[in-house]
Please model this.
Amino acid sequence: MVHAGSMYVIQKTERTVVELKLENGITGLGETWGTPDVYALAQRFARELIGKDALDRFSFREIIGKSSYENRFGRNGLATIAGLDLAAWDAAARSLDMSLAELIGARKRESIDVVSTLPAAIFPRAVSRKELTDHLDVPANTRLVVDFALEQVRKSGFRSFKLKSAAYSPEWDWKLLNELHEALPATRIRFDPNANYGAATATELCRRLDPLGLEFFEDPTGELEGIARLKAAVKTPVATNMWVVRDEHLVPAIRRKAVDVVLGDLFMWGGIDAWRRMARVAHAYGIKPALHSVYETGIATVANLHLASALAEVEHPNDSGLHFLAADVLSEPQEVKNGAMRLPTGPGLGVTLDSARLDKVTLETTSVRAP
Amino acid sequence: MAAPLSIAYTHVHSLRTASGAEALVARVLAADGTAGFGFTLNLDAGVARDMAAWDALAQAKGVPLWGLLGGSHRKVVKILKDELPAIPADWTALRKDVLEGRHELLRIDPFAWGSVEMVSTIAAVAGAFDLSIALLAPNAHPWEFQYCAALAATLKGEDTRIISRKDFPQKEMKVTTTPGIEIDWSLESSFSKLQWQS
Model:
């Protein structure tokens, strides 16, 4: 599949997969971003985890510093810790014979509604920015996205969609969202231009879109001030995955009444406990936490299902892009049926790594062992 | 976030402590037969049951309480005398006051707030607002200090502490590494006389 949005036109995703083996022989699975920087940090931080207690995961974050000031690795550091942290949560849960959801707090739901991404435009192959904008200059091409959404409904019963906007033309987005609403009146639709519209354009567009009753506007503009002003000007809820992405962003967003939904990404927030704390604080102040995702393997997708199951604060469906990937690394297929995914059974994440599948897509492998 | 435990049986007894106070002691029996215990001196059985359920789960899994909650932020917890009032168990008021910057330290009586989940939620809010929590042992009973120490292990914040209205002989408590919440039930002889139904 070709993903066309405001930030990129891509045909592949690269991820770092973590296997963390405890002294008791139990292995936990984790995953994070696959950029060269994060992959390098994962090797470095993994060395510092040797000898640590997997039950005491609070200490992992100290690897990048106790405060945001000390974190000289920025978001890459948080994402790296999150990948290792996830593997440790999985290993700990497996050791305790508990599902990951139970170790997070409870296993409240067995089925979680998920959201299908809709690309800004539909292409059979990756295209240049010029080809993308030429395509977006033809209003009739919105029909291709509507047809793509209908196909997802037929195949997997999706009841929720996220339209990734190229933020090239408000008229294109307005026309397309109206057509989607008309074609799929019972579905939830979130609209995400990744803050590539200026505040004035975004506010004008979102006001026009208000009557559609979308699920929320995700990062219609930026930064925190821009999105806060937009929120005050519209009726539809406003979400962010860009301006409230780590601990120190949350209180300013609460004070400013900047958003209705924090669409938190497990990797940006720095791991399970950080996400859980964010959900509790957001909920305490009337903001809904929800789970963000890009194109992740089954490991992170299932981790997000466990978080949604464990935390009653999560009401919105989970983002998910796994169904668009040509291959996964797990033995068990994680399928979307009737617009939802089932929480795997068994300890930890409840999934197993398929070595043969992993080998087929592996670019590089590093092992860090105790001396 | 009650303890994620399949509970087979739960029972609450009243006992008289050596000092003459009344305490409620709860026993929770997990489906695998593991027993956990909890208590309160404020006569709210809910907090005793919640503590007993977490104790049973931690005992069954062979880990201290912090091993079920994500980790421990400290190995030792300070105990300080503090006579300032604890924050009333009013969630709406606490959230508002924190937002308005009315607190520098959240003095919380965990027995009044009722559950591990509630304390964890307050702790998340405290952490977001760069506040620490002082856990009040309201009657300065040794069991209260032990429970507060188990909770304090999981709380962020440099100023996290246990507070008491009276001087207490110990100035700090070690965070347990043994399974369960590690209350020393033998400190009250009446505990051993309780008759638990099977």
In short: The mean pLDDT of chain A is 95. The interface with chain B takes residues 55-59, 92, 96-98, 102-103, 105-107, 247, 250-251, 254-255, 272-273, 276-277, 280-281, 284-285 of chain A (CB under 8 Å). Residues 74-95 of chain A form the longest helix (22 residues). The domain at 103-342 of chain A is CATH 3.20.20.120 (TIM Barrel).
